[in-house]
Amino acid sequence: MKVSVIGGGSTYTPELIEGFFDIWDKVKPLKITLLDINYERLSIVYDFLLRMIKRAGAEIELEMSTDLEEALKDADFVINQIRVGGNQARLLDETVPLKYGVLGQETTGAGGFANALRTIPVVYGIAKKIEEVCPSAWLINFTNPSGIITEMLLKYTKVKSIGLCNVPINFQKLFADLAEVSPEDVFLDYFGLNHLSFVRKVFVKGEDRTKELFLKVRERISDEERMILDNVNMFPNYYLGYFYLREERVEEVKHKPKRAEEVLKIESDLLNLYKDSSLDKKPEELSRRGGALYSRAAVNLISALSGLKEGFQIINVKNEGAISDLPYDSVVEIPVYLQKDRFHRYVIGKLPISVRGTIQSVKTYEELTIEAAMESSYKKALMALTQHPLISSMTLAKKILDDLISTNKDYFPKLI
Question: Residue 293 — very low, low, confident or very high, per pLDDT cuts 50/70/90?
Fold first, then answer.
């Protein structure tokens, strides 16, 4: 098996590689190729990973490259984890919208829109190269905003693409801990979009234990989050706080350090740690970077797609009627039973009326954002922001859009 990691110089990559220590002997010979445009970072991460692999006694051939075609050659799986513009661009996503009194965030609202417009053209280019060099490979997309990027890939390219997020697997672990079982014993009746999703029911070893576990989880969340849980009667993805607690979250982000600034410092510290030739295991400091259980989600998916196991996993996948209130060809985040290349979607049916409007509005925003990027359309970009529930104003959307175009001039497609 060959796995190509696009954005392999990320400080996240040691977390990813650690996951392969559990399956290398089942897929050997295993080759992992790291690709990055930043050779210095790539070299630091690569050298550290060699030490990790040696310490683990894993038979993994590790390569690094700055050439996309070379990195993709003969790949069975491509993992996409790039961040176009780096955390400097993310800082703009978190800052610019706040000038207009709306949320600045890397995946949600105007910040997520800016991230999408920077990222879509780059990932589209990567996908076209995959079509040329390794057309049978699976592309697993972690790059944010994951749902939007995955929908673009499935609508505009021939690449076999799946979007992945670590939120669902963390929810599964949360409820497993509360029920005092292993995560494999927990099934979540889960639906929505990436970073806009709900747990409707929790089953433990096939038994519906929703009521009991919701009572337990209430003790672990804030008063504001309890209000959401109690009123929608479903456990919300924590990104829902940006929608249901909008004013509070805007004030909160105005008066605390930007997450991008924190991540820039964390990444600098991690790279300095990785340079230490005596370090040969994942440092505890990596947990500050976020992405908990990221490697388990990726390796579980690769194992299922390779036929090593089968079962449910919550992924970003084409809807195909699983949620009847959303477009057939749109991407949704739902449980899917995976049997190698056979996908059996868990049927959600109609969205609960209490959350239907929010999900449908955000899906409309996502579709327009993709079309704006692919068609270089200013009008569709404007309407995308106008449709978003966190903006809902054409005049406000125009001010934000024009500012984002100016601050992202080196990355945005030219909108006409």
Answer: confident
Q: Note the residue count of the chain.
A: 416
Domain ranges of the chain: 2-163
Give yes or no: 239 in active site.
yes
pLDDT at 290 over 80: no
Write the DSSP string, 254-309.
HTS--HHHHHHHHHHHHHHHHT-TT--S--GGGGGG--TTHHHHHHHHHHHHTTS-
The whole-angstrom separation of Cα 38 and Cα 44 is 10
Cβ pair 101, 390 in contact under 8 A: no
The DSSP result for 379-404, as a single string, is: HHHHHHHHHSTTT--HHHHHHHHHHH
To the nearest whole percent, how much of the chain has pLDDT over 70?
100
Rounded CA separation 91/159 (Å): 31
**Is pLDDT at 167 greater than 90 in this prediction?**
yes
Q: What is the DSSP secondary structure assignment for residue 413, as one 8-state letter?
A: -
Q: What's domain 2-163's superfamily in CATH?
A: NAD(P)-binding Rossmann-like Domain (3.40.50.720)
Looking at 12, 46, 190, 239, which residue is catalytic?
239
- Separation between Cα atoms, residue 339 and residue 310, nearest integer Å: 5
**Res 214: pLDDT:** 97
> Does residue 256 carry a pLDDT above 90?
no
* CB 314, CB 335: distance < 8 Å: yes
- Assess contact for 65 and 33: CB atoms under 8 A: yes
Residue 85 — φ and ψ, nearest 5°? 90, -5
Collapsing DSSP to helix, strand or coil, 161 comes out as: strand
Spatial separation of the C-alpha atoms in residues 222 and 48, rounded to whole Å: 39
59/408 Cα distance (integer angstroms): 43
Query: What angle do helix axes 259-274 and 86-95 make, rounded to 10 degrees?
Result: 160
Hey, what long-range contacts does 401-408 have (CB within 8 A, 24 or more apart)?
Answer: 403/96, 403/99, 403/100, 404/96, 404/110, 404/113, 404/114, 404/117, 407/92, 407/96, 408/85, 408/89, 408/92, 408/114, 408/117, 408/118
Give the pLDDT mean for 196-217.
Answer: 98
Tokens of residue 113, six digits:
């829109």
Question: Could you read off the pLDDT of 88-144 as tens digits, one per residue?
Answer: 999 999 999 999 999 999 999 999 999 999 999 999 999 999 999 999 999 999 999
Residue 182 pLDDT exceeds 90? yes
DSSP 21: T
